Amino acid sequence: MILRFLTSGESHGKCLNAIIEGVPAGITIDVNFINNELGRRQIGYGRGGRMLIEKDTVKILSGVRHGKSIGSPICLEIENKDWENWLIPMSSEEVEQTEENINLINSKKITNVRPGHADLAGALKYNHTDVRNILERSSARETTTRVAVGSIAKSILKEFGIEGLSCVTQIGTVKAELPQNIFEHKEQIENSDLRISNDNAYELMKKEIDKAKEDGDTLGGCFTVVFKNVPIGLGSHVHWDRKLDGLLAQAIMSIQAVKSVEIGLGSKVAETLGSKTHDEIFVENGKYIRKTNNAGGIESGMTNGEDIVITASMKAIPTMKKPLNSIAIDKKEEVQAHFERSDTCAVAACAVVAEAMAAIILADAMLEKFSHDSLDEMKTNYQNHINRISER
Ligand code: EPS
Known about the structure:
Elements: E1 4-8, E2 15-21, H1 31-42, H2 50-53, E3 58-62, E4 64-65, E5 68-69, E6 74-79, H3 99-107, H4 119-125, H5 132-138, H6 143-158, E7 163-171, E8 174-175, H7 186-191, H8 202-214, E9 221-228, H9 244-253, E10 258-263, H10 274-277, E11 281-284, E12 287-290, E13 298-299, E14 302-303, E15 308-314, E16 325-328, E17 333-336, H11 347-370, H12 375-391
Antiparallel strand pairs: 1-2, 2-6, 3-6, 4-5, 7-8, 7-9, 9-15, 10-15, 11-12, 13-14, 16-17
This protein binds ligand EPS.
The site of ligand EPS has 16 residues, from helix 6.
């Protein structure tokens, strides 16, 4: 990858960080845009108490001068406001062994592993007796940094008119329609705290979330991410690890609680005849066009100029107020799983994180195709590519 990044930070640690390498010089980096993206991740009917504590905002520590990237690594920092409540249990330094401190640390120690979370495998793998050492990093709080990095990727894509948007299509058993052109419904989606495009399913979805909350349970769902104006020829057919659909699927599958990722028709290809699956090719005003987009904008690992359409499903969050049966790993005794604080439903937030992950992969593919030292160089190469295609 050319656009590489690392993130660090625990859910209740001091802050979250990201270092992003490979951003060309000359990209407009607007701190308000990044903060707006962070805010979009925090919205969602059914989210928990943590979102009332945090108002995620970014500090840009390096790589940007006077609002433009300079080609050096960009370092981002997002403060955890909740850190103030965790100074002793999450201290990076040794703490004085007073009775008060020991009690504080012990009160935050976790041994009752949560089914469905990283707790059991993580504690055994990393040889921890306190499962908090796993929970802190496996928490979906980590997705804050992905959205921050994604907003830098979106800033690169924006220079080429490439735009992404997500829309929730299912919460629990309630389905909402995916509009034909989701960009025409952007305002409605952005104004909906469930990220749905029209109100028909809204009350039913809310009811289902309320019911789960009342029962101490949690809920999953589905969402779709669409990117438009993506040029033909990103990715490659020549090798497995250069196929863009594979890269997008990995990036989105890596988001906490995501259990399936589909592109275009997705699993429906199994039941659809070839004649109804493949998007026939036409020429209109000298341009190659399709009248359908079952491929979701990708054929044989390469973009074909149509919208990139990715659908994913998220499982219900495993931190539950009404806990499942589990085991305490210190005594191997039957217990109820640990509950701290949790969201009842975070599908809308997950959709925003998926937009960010898809943006990172698409921006990387743009840098690979059109060079990556400066935006000017990239734009020249991009225009040559577009001209060459239109002349054929
Ligand atoms: C989240 C922050 C977390 C959780 C949630 C998502 O904060 P806290 O643990 O302090 O409440 O609210 O993550 C989970 C429920 C989970 O199981 O990972 C966030 O910032 O999105």
